[in-house]
Specification:
Number of strands of chain A: 11
Largest interface: A-B, 25 and 25 residues
Oligomer: heterodimer
Order of helices and strands of chain A: EEEEEEEEEEE
Radius of gyration of chain B: 13 Å
Strand content of chain A: over 45%
Distance between the termini of chain A: 40 Å
Helix content of chain B: under 10%
Number of strands of chain B: 11
Structural class of chain B: mainly beta
Strand content of chain B: over 45%
Shape of chain A: globular
Number of helices of chain B: 0
Helix content of chain A: under 10%
Radius of gyration of chain A: 15 Å
Distance between the termini of chain B: 36 Å
Number of helices of chain A: 0
Shape of chain B: globular
Largest sheet of chain B: 7 strands, mixed
Order of helices and strands of chain B: EEEEEEEEEEE
Structural class of chain A: mainly beta
Chain lengths: 129, 106
Amino acid sequence: EVKLLESGGGLVQPGGSMRLSCAASGFTFTDFYMYWIRQPAGKAPEWLGFIRNKANGYTTEYNPSVKGRFTISRDNTQNMLYLQMNTLRAEDTATYYCARSMNYYDGYYHVLYWYFDFWGPGTMVTVSS
Amino acid sequence: DTVLTQSPALAVSPGERVTISCRASESVSTGMHWYQQKPGQQPKLLIYGASNLESGVPARFSGSGSGTDFTLTIDPVEADDTATYFCQQSWNDPYTFGAGTKLELK
């Protein structure tokens, strides 16, 4: 059974830093791209970034909205995913989810699509003084 | 960024057919996916690639569309389907989500 479990959330002051963790189990962690997604209360989710799998060198990509402040990493020996968040702002207040990504090849349009097939329950981050 | 527009809320009776729409500000081909989120829970994948049913999801759920207009259909609706439904595109970077449609049962 695929399981993802985030931890590390809480209250942080504006300008502060926080590191979130995501423990993965039930699948071969190194085979998958892993994402961080956040969702402010009552609003739409927002994709933050991802880290590729072993076959693609564990490289990372970020949403321009957080690029330079957030860093995604993974410890493949422990099946852990991390999100380092720096210079936090009030607008970073949200529930943060880690998610596993799968791809689907559309043979008609000859395109590969990525989607999120499993999400963790999330961890809440509040940025406030 | 690609903006996905969804109607904010719908109310239907159990046993009825409901369609939830999602319109993209630019073409996303068939790179549209649908998620169900119940209060206090994480989103759950229902449909990927516009029309492909995720394993384990009841066949009452179906998806259609391409380009800019997409639909999630639930037929028949059951009481347990009370939730917010999000569309998400992965054709244009960055990937974006709709604001969600809250489905209530009468």
